[in-house]
Specification:
The structure is a homodimer of 469-residue chains.
Chain A (H helix, E strand, L loop, with lengths): L3 H16 L3 H17 L1 H12 L3 H24 L6 E3 L13 E7 L3 E4 L13 H9 L3 E4 L5 H17 L7 E4 L4 H9 L5 E5 L2 H13 L6 E4 L5 E4 L1 H4 L3 H13 L11 E5 L2 H15 L9 H15 L5 E5 L11 E6 H6 L11 E7 L2 H10 L3 E7 L6 H13 E5 L39 E7 L3 H4 L7
Parallel strand pairs in A: 3-4, 3-6, 4-5, 6-7, 8-9, 8-13, 9-12, 11-12, 13-14
Antiparallel strand pairs in A: 1-2, 2-15, 10-11
């Protein structure tokens, strides 16, 4: 096992050439990595399941998504728009109207430290979206593998090295460090040659790493995704007469992956009514009947129980469902209920409980609903069902949802994040530490490209087509 | 004088309507403010000179620049690209290829706190670039005026209120708070309704405000411009035979505004040679003959002397020029000389000295030059004269300059920042606390627009053309 220092130094030595590599070379690498993943599917999925217990079906789909993502960034590099050259020819005359020739490019930041997540052993790991977008941007990557899937991480890394070698590229473009101690990660984020950090994980670990990035002599960007509560607002017109369908859809989304998705819905806001009471009974039943698989690790399992217990003990919170665990490492889904006023006044009710859990928030009126949405800390998503009509209240609701979330859904459930051109996966803190950036979708590449403007650049620099030199 | 709290609350009540205001309304406001500034020129410039001593000629040109900037953002709003809608129609099929309809917009962050700078009483003050870009983005602004030009700030604010009233817009869209105590600024940055802070000023004050923004329950972006040393690399071919012209150009840029520009050149890197020795003698003479006006305030004056004294006492630093002050508040220009190895090993030589000062760094070879550039902390600009030819060394130099600066100049001096489409005024820390953003030029609006994606949005939302609701 190489040390953090030697791995980062090796990556940094490869950085200048990779920063000036032609688009074709980067696209070929990304496509080659995608193909290699697909070709290695069977043993990789098996190993991933052995380490995480997430199931072959889900893991195979996640591998597809990861390969798809690599190819998307190949397309992005080929299209070239991400490097967003703005050429602003000289304008004659005195300032402010007159100005020199300004040519704006975006240059790769340099080596990126990427921290794998426990819950996506392919898509947020060695060859996940952070790695793909950083390589596409022209940055070497040093991955800190997650202790929950060390074996898979090594296999995927070996596979990547084979692709790099086959394409005659330096193997050090993708480094791997591992270890369960927080020290390893902090050494990585503190290393002078590391120029940006991408992290998906817990609030506590994320804040510690953010602190390291900020306290450097040369602070670097920390792109952290640290938690999200994902409110779902069900308006009366979407609830009345559809209680069973709404309950089924939400129960499935809450229980998906045993609730271990960053976009798992944790808060359901609806108006007090007989329809709501019926819905809660149906949701309780639907949740109780979901089959859950073991959680990813002991810490998550313990954290889930502690979170549920804390919530259940708050005043004015009713525990609707808290079944017995089927096995020690398999939790029971949990459902709570409170009123909007309590939800707004008690911050503990708005903390994320990572796992198959949700709290129903009963609103007396429209204002209560707005207040409940606004009280939520930053979230990756907010869902509004039933806002088909244009009226003042719906506009206010969309505005409130937009102020707390990076993605506002009007149909479907928040779990499942499309890898697409327009996607934005990031919201106000703690959903993201950099809410203007996204960790999923084409614009994820922007995190690793810093604008630089060349004033009166020489012809040879321009002739390189805006690509960084 | 209204309190911080009442001013921010009033601005925040106007925020939703302004966020959904049509482009035409915003453009009209910005153009109206520009016109009003121009119409008020004579008394405003007089008042500005009385408070800052910067001279009528410069201040009138700065007013022109400020009006030009307001109109640029009017054009930017009208063009609409800043709101950067990406419409990504639904794709049929299973994920990852299939996905729902995703419609990406950018929503104004909400009320912005803007801290005026001492050295630009018009362009980085009440109606400066931060205010113009925030209003264009759809955000109300609360200005913290600079104690160095309180009277002018009040007059410009009154003028803005007249324009707002004439256009039947709420006067609270542009609030003003004042006071010399740091407490006022911290109260402003801490206020729950403030959603972003823009600041241009000293490292110390900026870091304190950044800390306030970070320690909030809901951290907000802090766009701070905190200092820049602006290296100028003069390659032998640009120096030899042109020593006098280079000395004159640099002396004028160093002494411009008594050195009180954020882009004032503070480091000159050149190769050891007879040509360099001649240049240093000519620069000393040219600097000594520049006429300097009083500095902006006592703190800047004291800081300049302390900085020069500190620098002069470092080992292996020769003091070339340090004349006597013409008057107590007028400094004498200063020039120092050192070698590249000392420059790289002693961080004190790379600290900004705000005022008419520069240090010449003598390089033995190309590697020395690269090392000196790379040793520089983040800077707004880096200038390279004489890199007309395409070769390995010039490429490495451009790469080094791009890694430490946001603007790389190949001709001209760094003072004077064009307000244009491609401009990037921001570099790695401490030049900017958010080096992916710019505080000058059209892209400054991006600081106040946060991406949000609507998934399967209803028709009424789409029909509003991507404008935030």
């Amino acid at each position: 096992m190489k040390t953090v220092d030697s791995t980062v130094l090796a990556a940094s030595r490869a950085a200048p050439d990779w920063a000036s590599s032609p688009a074709r070379q980067r696209a070929d690498l990304l496509a080659g990595l995608a193909r290699a993943l697909e070709e290695g599917r069977e043993p990789l999925v098996k190993l991933a399941h052995d380490e995480t217990g997430l199931g072959a079906l889900r893991l195979s789909a996640e591998l597809d998504r990861t390969a798809f993502q690599l190819r998307r960034f190949a397309d992005e590099v080929t299209a070239g728009a991400a490097f967003s050259v703005i050429d602003d020819p000289a304008a004659s005359g005195a300032p402010p109207a007159g100005h020199p020739h300004l040519h704006r490019v975006r240059v790769p930041v340099g080596p990126v430290a990427m921290f794998s997540a426990s819950n996506f052993p392919f898509a947020f790991s060695v060859l996940g979206g952070d790695t793909a977008s950083a390589l596409a941007a022209g940055c070497p990557v040093v991955v800190k593998s997650h202790p929950g899937h060390t074996g898979l991480s090594r296999e995927v890394h070996e596979l990547a090295l084979r692709v790099l070698r086959a394409q005659l590229l330096p193997a050090v473009l993708l480094g791997l460090v591992e270890g369960a101690s927080p020290q390893i990660g902090q050494d990585l984020a503190r290393h002078p040659a590391i120029r940006a950090v991408a992290f998906t994980g817990s609030l506590r670990a994320g804040l510690a790493l953010q602190q390291v990035c900020r306290q450097r002599v040369d602070p670097i960007p920390f792109y952290g995704e640290l938690g999200s509560i994902n409110p779902v607002v069900v308006l009366p017109c979407a609830m009345l007469g559809r209680e069973q369908a709404v309950a089924t859809a939400l129960a499935q989304s809450i229980a998906l992956g045993t609730g271990q998705f960053c976009t798992s819905p944790g808060v359901i806001i609806a108006k007090r009514s007989d329809s709501l009471d019926l819905f809660v009974r149906l949701l309780e039943k639907a949740l109780a009947s979901q089959s859950l698989h073991p959680m990813l690790n002991e810490a998550i399992r313990t954290g889930f129980d502690a979170g549920c217990q804390r919530l259940g003990q708050r005043p004015r919170v009713a525990q609707i469902l808290r079944g017995a665990s089927a096995a020690a490492n398999v939790p029971a889904a949990a459902l709570f209920r409170t009123d909007a006023a309590s939800f707004c006044s008690d911050p503990a009710l708005r903390e994320e409980v990572f796992g198959p859990e949700a709290i129903v928030v009963e609103a007396r009126d429209d204002q209560d609903m707005l207040d409940a949405v606004r009280a939520i800390k930053g979230s990756l998503t907010a869902t509004i069902w039933g806002a088909d009509e244009d009226n003042q209240f719906h506009r206010a609701l969309v505005r409130a949802a937009s102020s707390v979330a990076g993605r506002v859904l009007f149909s479907g459930v928040p779990t499942g994040v499309a890898v697409s051109t327009a996607q934005h996966h990031g919201g106000p803190f703690p959903a993201s530490t950099q809410p203007f950036s996204t960790s999923v979708g084409s614009r994820a590449i922007d995190r690793f490209l810093r604008p630089v403007v060349f004033q009166d650049p020489p012809d040879w620099l321009l002739s390189r087509g805006g690509l960084p030199v």
